[in-house]
Amino acid sequence: MSSRTEQPAVTVLGLGPMGRSLAGAFLAAGLRTTVWNRTPGRDRELVARGAAGARSAEEAVAAADLTVVCVVNQDAADAILRREAVEGALTGRTVVNLSADTPGRARDTAQWAAGHGIRYLDGAIMTPADTIGTPDAVFLYSGPEEPYRQHGSVLRALGGTHHHVGEEPGRAAAHDIALLDIFWTAMAGFVHALAVARAEGITPGELAPFARGIAQILPPVFEASAREADSGSYSGEDNPITSALSSMAHIVRTSEAHGIDASVMRAAEGLARRAVDRGHGADGFVRIAELLGRG
Ligand code: NDP
What we know:
Elements: H1 3-6, E1 9-13, H2 17-28, E2 32-36, H3 44-48, E3 52-53, H4 57-62, E4 66-69, H5 74-81, H6 84-90, E5 94-97, H7 103-115, E6 119-125, E7 138-142, H8 145-155, E8 161-164, H9 171-199, H10 204-231, H11 241-257, H12 263-280, H13 287-292
Parallel strand pairs: 1-2, 1-4, 2-3, 4-5, 5-6, 7-8
Antiparallel strand pairs: 6-7
């Protein structure tokens, strides 16, 4: 028997940029990798590298105990998985679903899986496709520990760090949502900053090194703020909400003077004002997290 046939098998459903990276990393680790994608032809390069190209999703999932699904969202994953032939082929096997969606959809999918005797882990990939197979990749999983332990060595072929964040199936997606909340609000701020800077005669290239400096301030601020939020004590000694409010008002005023939509900053300003109106002006900015859920 060749060493290749002794390697564990894995199936990847979905060959967008991320699915191709996942399958490529499995192949690079020497795993027997079967691939399938709704639109034919996307497996060409992977097959040239040694992957088995399945003709159908049911054929693909029957080739391995572990199937990794990575498509645009849960509707797409459902379109692939929730068909009798696929459900039948998956019974007794494990699905790790790395398609992004909401915690609610993850819980619903876990219920569907349980109803068909399929072992199910929901997952989230927190880093771009080009990190897969490198130490920078970050994967989160939620669901039962046992399949995570059983398939952990195969999943680690994807490189990076792997975190089981709890048995409750929605927890990986919940982390994903919270973390993407940070990413997209930051990106909304960045594109707005580019527009305001440009209106003031500053090019994106001129702003970029200073933008990096701002981004580098954030990690210790996040950590200190999380400690405050955990402890429920919101010291605004160095930077009270009133001071943040004043800074935000300058941004709104400058933007609107140039005719630039300031609705993102106005929304943030509105939250800060609500905190001040409720008597929390001397607290730190993170106090707002506590007020948000209270309407
Ligand atoms: P996309 O999010 O564009 O997903 C493309 C894949 O979804 C293709 O395989 C496509 O098949 C499939 N698909 C779309 N609709 C359907 C459908 N109705 N039925 C079956 N298959 C469908 O590309 P990515 O590969 O980049 O992303 C996959 C997942 O990974 C997403 O959930 C994304 O959020 C997540 N992710 C991606 C990152 C990245 O850097 N790309 C980073 C972190 C997470 P077809 O080719 O037939 O259209």
